[in-house]
Amino acid sequence: MNYRRLKIWSLGLRIFHWAFALSIMVLCLTGYYIHHPFALGIWTGVKTNFLMAKVRYTHFVAAYIFMAAVFFRLYLFFFGNRFERLIDFLPLSSRNIRRLRLTIRHYLYLTDGDTRHGGHNPLAGTIYTGIILLSLVMIMSGLFLLFPENHLWASWGVALFGSQQMARLVHYFLFWVFLVFVLIHIYLVIWHEIFGSEALISSIFSGYKFLPKDKESKPREVGI
């Protein structure tokens, strides 16, 4: 099969991806420690003076990077290249609904063939969009917890969550949602790299994917 090398991801999208990914990693590690500080005082011979303060500071710095990445991705949803916009992957058109069905069947090993998406497939794109929306909830709950005395965040926080305790519960629940998302995302990326032909992992570094020239060919259906 002949392939063509096609530029899919802009530099901005790639910067977003790594800023988002690394900030989530730091936020999960520091957030779990803030929730359950397993090291206090002297710990295995290491001085832990001001450890909670340092972890909280790291958490807040990562949170601002996370916020910047989320807002930038919202911008790319509407003003990025054609592969980065919502209209390209959300199942709102007959084409994307058909691609969504094919993608699900492909993941369930019910179709033998490449689903041939340029950017995000409709299933992944829909999940990513949901994660970005949940990120906004995470941001709002985090700012409410960080600035309870600020009139703006206090009013928004009470309106959205009712109380700080509920905001803390939502924040903690979303921590697990993001953790599970990261694990599934890594698994599917490796799965695609093994069974696909797009060079998915290298594309998030270079921006280029390899797509078949016969893009209109249809996958072969396989019986159960």
Question: What are the defining features of this structure?
Answer:
two-stranded antiparallel sheet, mainly alpha, single chain, Fumarate Reductase Cytochrome B subunit, elongated
Description:
Residues about 215-224 have low confidence and may be disordered. The strands form three sheets. The protein has a two-stranded antiparallel ribbon. Strands 2-3 form a two-stranded antiparallel ribbon. The protein has a two-stranded antiparallel sheet with strand order 4-6. It contains eight helices and six strands. Helix 1 (about 10-35) packs across helix 7, helix 2 crosses helix 5 (about 120-145) and helix 6 (about 150-160) packs across helix 7. The chain has about 220 residues and is mainly α. It has a single domain, classed as Up-down Bundle (Fumarate Reductase Cytochrome B subunit), CATH 1.20.950.
